[in-house]
């Protein structure tokens, strides 16, 4: 064993904090299960002693990161982690840099334009600009959206690094919402290939019938898809023949935001 590897091994073990690691594991696990999980379910899934999970969940609840349903006893996330994430994102001012372009897209397309980021197996809405029609969709900050049946989910997944994309989609449960929903891994992989080819994604009412969405990824300076913007509205306002034009406008808008953030691609 070399001196470097010996030093690294010692560092890995000396500075390990099991309690912190378990707390983070609980937060990550619950992020993948927004419906909530009980202490016993968490302990079983993470293979942790029940006593440790009991102490951790109570501490996280006391700190405001978790909330427990008094009937089911299931724990789930509060908005506190989202608020921390928004503060971190504010360092590059993603929302502030995206809003002018989102408003221009709203004015051109007249339907609601939204901004969101990937969180485990969901998209979390950060901001939205309401459409100009009398009837328009409203998406509030913190709203959660699934991946396999949404335009922003497809937009971000399509451009993730291959290994990360593979790990993420392997954990997707392809729930069938209606006859438009993609329900197989193979079909979803083909859909993502089309997203990469065109630069934008389409939701053809795959979760909520009667709604259309088109989205595109926003890249950071390193070319990583850190967010997505998308337009959404009733599908009786547009026809499939209009999708390419709308998709290209959303793609160009996302690229405009990306370049503001330092993307050179």
Can you identify the CATH superfamily of the largest domain?
A: GAF domain
Content-based structural category: alpha+beta
Low-confidence stretches: 1-12
User: C-alpha Rg, in Å?
Assistant: 21 Å
Element order: H for helix, E for strand: HHHHEEHHEEEHHHEEEH
The first-level CATH class name of the largest domain: Alpha Beta
Summed up, the domain count is 2
Averaging pLDDT over every residue, what do you get?
A: 87
* Gross geometry: globular
Strand content: 15-25%
CATH architecture of the largest domain: 2-Layer Sandwich
Number of helices: 10
Q: What is the chains' assembly state?
A: single chain
- Largest sheet, strands/sense/barrel: 6 strands, antiparallel
Q: Would you give the CATH topology of the largest domain?
A: Beta-Lactamase
Share of residues in helices: 40-55%
Distance N terminus to C terminus? 43 Å
Q: Give the total of beta strands.
A: 8
Strand order of the largest sheet: 5-4-3-8-7-6
